[in-house]
Amino acid sequence: MGPKELNRVDVIRDISERRLRQKDAAELLKLSRRHIQRLVNQYRGQGPAGLISLRRGKPSNRRYTPEFKQRVIDIVRQFYIDFGPTFANEKSQEQRENTPKRTRSKRNISRAAQQRAINITLMKEPDTV
Length: 129
Fold this sequence. Notes:
The protein is an all-alpha fold. Helices cover 64% and strands 0% of the residues.
């Protein structure tokens, strides 16, 4: 458990032991009162393990397919090889449809740029003196 979850366990335990009201806990954890009630029910039924997210360790539902990522990287390598990640993303969105949103595509483009830099470095001829 991380520090955020450990703090959550302490607060929910205080609610269960009636040292803290749900309303105050909701403000403290910046959650709704209804969500606090759900957490209290899980805590009472399963203990601290009930507060751990069941999504932990699972891939995101919003992830791009590997084929789509590869297509983006191929487009960047083909048309925008000298562009930085932000500029390449802006240009690709101007000229193409089905381009991903900024943060994810920027991350993929950055990875492609890093790989390109590694490949260029490896292909460089040794300096002759």
